[in-house]
Amino acid sequence: MNGVERYERSRSLFERAAKVIPGGIYGSKAPGFLVPGAYPYYIESTKGCRMRDADGNEYIDYLCGYGSQIVGYGNERVDGPALERASRGDLLDQPAPVMVDLAERLVASVEGSSWAVFMKNGTDSTTLAYSLARVRTEKPMAIMAAGAYHGAANWCGANPFAALASDREGVLSFRYNDLGGLERLFAENRGRIACLFLTPYHHPTFKPQELPDPALYETARRLCDAEGALLVMDDIRGNFRLHSRGSHVRFGAKPDLWCMGKALANGYPISALLGAEGTRATANSFFITGTYWMSAVPMVAAMATMDEMERLGGVPRLESLGLLLKEGLESAGRESGFGARISGPPAIPFLTFDEDPDLYLNQRFGAAMARRGVFLHPHHNWFISLAHGEDDIAETVSRAREAFAAMRAGRE
Amino acid sequence: MNGVERYERSRSLFERAAKVIPGGIYGSKAPGFLVPGAYPYYIESTKGCRMRDADGNEYIDYLCGYGSQIVGYGNERVDGPALERASRGDLLDQPAPVMVDLAERLVASVEGSSWAVFMKNGTDSTTLAYSLARVRTEKPMAIMAAGAYHGAANWCGANPFAALASDREGVLSFRYNDLGGLERLFAENRGRIACLFLTPYHHPTFKPQELPDPALYETARRLCDAEGALLVMDDIRGNFRLHSRGSHVRFGAKPDLWCMGKALANGYPISALLGAEGTRATANSFFITGTYWMSAVPMVAAMATMDEMERLGGVPRLESLGLLLKEGLESAGRESGFGARISGPPAIPFLTFDEDPDLYLNQRFGAAMARRGVFLHPHHNWFISLAHGEDDIAETVSRAREAFAAMRAGRE
Q: Which residue among A23, A94, A162 sits closest to B42, beta carbon to beta carbon?
């Protein structure tokens, strides 16, 4: 079956969409971010770690709603309490009592934090962190790693797409893990740095993932302290997949602010900003508001997701599944003579080919796997969920073995 | 029963919250935006136009989740399809087919629009409108009416709260309905204006609402055309309560961009930006993205909300209910010698006292009504929903008659 037939309904939906939606599908879900024609554009249904596209094709899913699914699509222990809350109201005139429970629980869980606020988008959280740091320090600039993603707002320098140059004047960047470069950036901009943004480890789009240099966080803390700048841990993508008490604990970091989201409520829309005690007064002075920010259902879902994470084995379980996948895929690649390598922490893997930094092989492999019923993003890191099982990993590795062999034989 | 007893659980929740959440409750739901001690701080459940607070007190609700409830809390014809969609997945790796249906339907409904994108917050929509206008025109400034609310982002000049002064340098403001002033602002900033933001009518916080001067929109269009600036209709608060084809139709406005949200999906989290054909190419060039922006459940809810609006009588029904409320409350006020006056369009009323522009009487009246089981915001406009009935309005007016009499007698 060729690509046109396999994704016929996706294509016909997309043709309609292109008339009334910019790009047909915009942003990170645009077909061009996958391999156009070789992936489904529309998804119809999901359950556990499986999904079915608009044409009825089935997949084992390793994108997990861009990381948001951590205990599995349609998890009844999350959806049950969420639906019960929904039946009594979601968006209310004032918060529901669960807001207090969730704030208490997060502050107790995330090591070093003493307050929490809830929002919708991850970008709401990083933007508030940036604003709060600027108001707290009365200094204008943020430092970020080049290629790091901290949201789609204009102020985030990482977005390489259309916006006015003047929108990005608040951001300086350094090469990830270049400690000397970071030190120089602080020295050259003394008195102007409000904050340093870091993701727990580096996960640039289109590139292998990179773990932090063992001295990165000690250096970051020291430079921030000397400058009076805040250290912001953007844990939105890593959320709960690296450490149950916050990804910073895994790497020994001591942030002032934490951005959380995605897996926080297993796909229900909520993000959070947490802060250390020293930032509380500044946070108190802010007008933080959004129509949907105190909706009750995602808060109930967040509580239930944390329970379910624990029940299903949490980070250790995610890591053992991730290691199985890593070993299986790398070995399957070697069998066909490919230098396929998985980078990053086991629960958030990404595959690249040592022999092809330009990702053409990624695209061929991704397309071959999509055709075989496994959804692996060719340009963005993947995610393991607690709904994946050893059998799903084994099936994935078996499909990969076929795909690598077909690529080697020039049939993919 | 005194205030402490009536709201005991609200208070005790708030005491816990104050330890782990900045301000305990932040933003527009902060107790200080109501009358501290005289309103519930936490809501437990809702149905139709009624709600029950954390202490079990019941209310007829006229805030409607800050306008988001338009066909009533827990409306089964909205929640039914939404829950069915939820059972098959909400946040997916790619959009669900309903995204195409919703874009087609909105573009067909909103007069003058030719494309739509979906986001979460109202502020996402106004911020994208501002960015798009700046990129389209290559000019930096937005004009807004003083006191108008276009979101909680730093760039919106309307937010009077903490942010760096430099964050607001992109906004100029004029006195609403001062057509000469608006003309001068354009003249003095020729070549620098990217866009003019207007809400369909003026609904400043803490003040009576004001309908547009009959010449406002013709003037606005002419000035924008001469400057090459875009006219942005921020219809988030008015959404579907003024006209079924967009609030601009009611007032004869011809915008280039439309911001929608709140009532769009009866409280399910979604916002939208719509654009006229002339803005399509610029929209195509943007990277528009957010983890939850293509979630399917709110899109299904939006479709169902539009159906249900129509079935229940739409804007004419909302207006007849609103007029009943206006006549009833104004007449009840007069009976006790108060100049209580309802301003704004009938479906989005707000009460102020002619004899007290400082709103002390508003606060006394709001507190007296809260005690009597009617939730009327003392500082922010109200909303009628299609779940309100003549009997609810009659009960409200009857409680108001008691409240005004008690105020006149010095007992409130």
A: A94
Q: Which two tokens stand for residue B294?
A: 């293509």
Task: Please state, in angstroms and rounded to a whole number, the distance separating the CA atoms of residues A224 and A239.
Answer: 23
Give the pLDDT band (50/70/90) at residue A163: low
Q: Which CATH superfamily is domain B3-71+313-408 in?
A: Aspartate Aminotransferase, domain 1 (3.90.1150.10)
Name chain B contacts of A287, Cβ cutoff 8 Å: 26-27, 152, 159-162
| Sequence ranges of chain A with CATH classification 3.40.640.10 | 76-311
pLDDT classification of A167: cutoffs 50, 70, 90: confident
Least confident interval from A3-12, A289-298, A353-362, B282-291: A3-12
B120 Cβ under 8 Å from any chain A Cβ: yes
> What residues of chain A lie within 8 A of the CB of B93, using their CB?
29, 43, 51, 61, 63-66, 375
Count of other CB atoms within 10 angstroms of residue A411? 9
Write out chain B residues lying below 8 Å of A292, CB-based: 68, 120-121, 269
ipTM value for the complex: 0.97
A84 contact B CB<8A: no
The C-alpha atoms of residue A362 and residue A379 are separated, in whole angstroms, by 8
- Model pLDDT for residues B228-253, shown as the tens digit of each residue: 999 999 999 999 999 999 999 999 99
- Give span(s): CATH 3.90.1150.10, chain A: 3-71+314-408
**A123: nearest CA in chain B?**
B290
- How far is Cα A183 from Cα A196, in angstroms, rounded to an integer? 12
Min distance A322 CA to chain B CA atoms (Å): 20
pTM value? 0.97
Out of B26, B97, B164, whose CB is closest to A134? Answer: B164
Report the pLDDT value the prediction gives residue A152, as an integer from 0 to 100: 87
What is the Cα–Cα distance from A95 to A356, expressed in whole angstroms?
51
CATH classification number, B76-311, choose in 2.60.40.1940, 3.90.45.10, 3.40.640.10, 3.60.15.10: 3.40.640.10
Question: What architecture does CATH give domain A3-71+314-408?
Answer: Alpha-Beta Complex (3.90)
Given a contact cutoff of 8 angstroms between Cβ atoms, the answer to whether A158 and A204 are in contact is no
Residues paired with B141 in a beta bridge:
B193
Chain A residues with CB under 8 Å of B154 CB are: 127, 131
Does residue B258 sit at the A interface (CB-CB below 8 Å)? no
Q: What is the DSSP string of B239-278?
A: TTTS-TT-HHHHHT---SEEEE-GGGGTTSS-EEEEE-GG
